[in-house]
Every structure is written in C-alpha cells, then in structure tokens.
C-alpha cells in the first residue's frame, strides 16, 4: 500500500555530478556523521564510562593490541594467556589492530594508557562510520542528489546491524568489513572500468584479509561484474580488474600482516591455499578476456573450467579445508558452543522480533531498487539491474547466515535514502489527509519497523530468557577487575567472560569463545557438565588455580541444563564440591569465585 503512492512519481534522474559541485556533498556527509556520532555517544555514554564492550570479542581485541604495544611481534598472533602454557594462535588480522594501536601509542603520553584506550575504542568505530558514510553518501550523491545522499547516510543510523557494528566501543573487525563493502559498492559506480574494478577488488581484499566471512560478499560482487561482461563485451575489464586486484591485494596484505613465518593451511583465515585459488581465477579471467567475443554459454563454460581448476589447486593444497571452517569442530564444541552462536545461524533460528524488522527494511530496500530500475534509462538501467542482483544475493546470504545482514544493510541504504526522499516530497505536496497519514505511517514503519513488533511483544506472555554477556547483572567488567588482586594464576571459566578476565587482570584462562583452542574448549565444556570427581581431574590437568563464573549469563545455564548432576549445576545451586573453596570478592551474588584446594597426597 505504501508504494502505490509512488506509482506516478518519476525520480529526477541525475545530471553529471561535475555540474553539481556547488552542492558540497562532503560537508553534508560530515554533518550527518557528526549528528550520528553524537547520538551514538549519548546512547552509549554509560557503557563508555564503565569501560564495557558490546561483545567479548571487543575486549579480546584490546588485549591483542595491548600485547602488540607491549612488544609482542607483529607477525606473532598468539594469545599466550588462552590455553596456557603454549597459548592459542588467533585467526585475527593485524589490519584491525593498526588504527587502535596507533591512537593508543599517540595519545598515551598525553592522557595515560587507560584513557587512551577508551578514546581509541570510541574514536575508531566512529572513524569507521565516517568511512561508511563517505562511500554511501558520495555514491548516492552521484546517482541522485544531495538530499538522497543525506537520507542514505541517515539510514545507516536506523538499520540495526549497522548501528550495532559501528557503535562506540565496538572495536572488533566487523565494522571495517562493512566499510570495505561500502567502498567496493562506491567503486562500482566509477566511470573507468579498470580503476573502478581494481578499487572494488582492493577494498574486498582488505575485508577478506580481516576475515574470510566476507568471501561470499566478494563472490556476489564478482557475479554482478560477470553479468556486466555477459551483457556488454566491452565491460569485461571490470571483472578482470576486480579479480586481479582482489588476488594481488590479498597476497600483498598477507605478506604485510602474516609474513612468511606462518605458511600453514588454516581453514579459518587467509592462507597460501586461498591465495593460490584467487591467483588462479584472476589469471584465468585475464586469459578469457583476451579471447574474441564468446556466446554466453561458452563464456560461462570457460569460467566454470577456471573455477574447477582453482578448486582443484585448493583441494590439493589444503584438503582438510574443503568443508567449512566449523565443519571440523569437535562434536562437543559444535553442539554446546557453535550451535548457540546466533549470529552465525540462519534467520529462522534468530529472535524473530529482532530479526524480522531488519529483514523488512532490506526487502523494502530491494523494492525501492526495483522501482528505480523501472524508471531508469541507458547506463543507469543496467547499473540498477546490477544493484538489484547484488541486493538479492546479499539478502539470500543473510537469510542463511544472519551476521551477513550487516553487509546487506549497507547496500540497502542508498535505495532506502531515495525512497525516503520520494515519500517526503509526496508528503509535502499532497493535500489529501488520507495520503498524508499513509505516507507518514510508511516512513515511520520503514525507519522504525521494530516499534510495532515490540508493541505486540509487550502484550504476549513473557518467558525467562538467559542474559547476554553484555547485559549481565554481575557487572563483568567491574567484577573481573577485582580478580587482579588475587595471586596470578590460571582461571577455569565459561567462554564469554574469559576476554574480560584477560583484559582486567594478568590471569590466564583455559579457553574463550575462539575455536582454534577447541581442545581446551572441549575440556571446559566436559568439566562443567561432568560429575564432581571427573570435573576435578580436568580442571587440575589444565593447572587451573581458580574457577569463576557469572550465574546470570546464557552459557552457564546451557551447561547446567546439560547435566543436573554436573559441576555447573552444583555451582549454580550454590553447592560447590569440597575441592572448591569460595573466595569472597565483595560483589553481586551472581559473580562467584572459588580457588582450588590442594589435592591430598596419597599416604
């Protein structure tokens, strides 16, 4: 119904952007960035003051940066306080550490390291937001005008996945991957095929270096450029430049961030086998491009052969990585840990009251894209066809892997900005009260679709839900800081509070929520779900000195429910076994600490 009122509205197609320089889009983008930054700071003020991170991965990122600043080698990605004494080789990239470490080193002499860390943790996500807005705003300005650019940028502050990943203190890698997606999207609107394709490839190469989860995004961009080639033979250089820049960018960034000290074939991070795969496909793409014009089916046949050749290289180089990175997880770790990470699961396994409003906004963005395509001519018609294909592919990806909704959301902002601008114009011009109410309702629902659902949810019967770590009533950051007063040791704890322990103290932990330490993760799960005697053996085998947990988090409840006679169930009931001695930390009842009593010597 909301879209009917646009059926007679023909968008004003853009003039050459070089004739509209008086509009000063960069200034408008900067104003929106400042406004959103202030809003994010106000909303996150209490968390910033308390030094609380939105997610445990953010705390562990700062731990990694601290270690780097303290002298740990650039190419040494171990976290030596996870699964000691050998530590755990992390799959994270140093690219994300660079801006954080640079700001902390620069500001520490002025404010002290503690304050510098807080400033960096606030500034870097807002800097990332600025990069995203610059790419989205400039793209929307080029395609439409400064008003649409403004609304497209504002839409970034109204899409849940973007707000979460770009908020202050969110210093893990997802924000920079969103930025790389936005930059690649901007590059696709360039006039020069070689330059535009190369810039898109380099942007996504940086995203892939940060984490392999962006590879499906890169595949979607590559697929769109292949469609350009099929549609117009002269557009083939887009894909050639993209593939070659993507491959060469990954090789260069691999050498920059990993060097040649670790050439093992890791399935969860960029490795030589991945580099070889993309180098083969890039070379094959260049070879196909110099051939005479080919029928579409023949062209697809050549690309299929190239893909098979690259896959064969990958299979020979790294046969263990033919399945997904999580496919090789220990069954215990898979069932108790991976299956409970909601963001990596499909849409239908999410909290639908939170997920469906996001999906609705993405679908509205797709509808708006199709409306723009129907009213476009010449090169814009093809461009918006590409955009629609890209958005459809990304929505499908989001449905199966919900964390990808953040990448999809940034692509949806431009058509959403156009739609909002059109509706506001229509609202201003119409004299019909009914039309005004319909349009105003449409704008409200598109911008804040969660509001109606939350109203419905408020009248439904309430069910008790486990508390996410970032909402724990045991005040993880404050309480784990008290652990610094205990003699240094190894702490046996559930995964989600491990990063806070590492950040706030010099203790080590047996495991965190990071799968490369899956053997230690398995032992933590088995110990907490085993009877007391078996649990004690596992805990002591890891040289643990303390057991720590927050009882109001989701993870302890899951472990306690697995075995009513297990260690975690005993601890949750306040009935610790005799080999655990309570330690009074003067904190909330939900934060509990025990030290291990000495193992009695045999007579």
Describe the protein in words.
By secondary structure, the chain is mainly alpha-helical. The protein is 61% helix and 4% strand. It has 25 helices and seven strands. The strands form two sheets. The protein has a five-stranded mixed sheet with strand order 4-3-5-7-6, covered by helices on one side. Strands 1-2 form a two-stranded antiparallel sheet. Strand 3 (490-492), helix 21 (498-504) and strand 4 (508-509) form a beta-alpha-beta unit. Helix 12 (272-289) packs antiparallel against helix 13 (296-317). The model is unreliable at 1-15 (pLDDT under 50).
Keywords for this structure?
603 residues, mainly alpha, 5-stranded mixed sheet, 7 strands, 4% strand, disordered N terminus
Reconstruct the topology from this structure.
Blueprint: H1 25-43, H2 45-50, H3 56-69, E1 78-79, E2 88-89, H4 97-111, H5 113-143, H6 146-155, H7 160-166, H8 174-187, H9 193-210, H10 215-231, H11 236-257, H12 272-289, H13 296-317, H14 331-336, H15 352-374, H16 378-400, H17 405-429, H18 433-447, H19 450-459, H20 476-482, E3 490-492, H21 498-504, E4 508-509, H22 518-529, H23 532-541, E5 546-550, H24 554-562, H25 567-572, E6 580-582, E7 591-596
Parallel strand pairs: 3-4, 3-5
Antiparallel strand pairs: 1-2, 5-7, 6-7
Helix pairs in contact: 1-5, 1-6, 3-4, 3-21, 4-5, 5-6, 5-8, 5-17, 6-17, 7-17, 8-9, 8-17, 9-11, 10-11, 10-16, 11-12, 12-13, 15-16, 15-17, 15-19, 16-17, 17-18, 20-21, 22-23
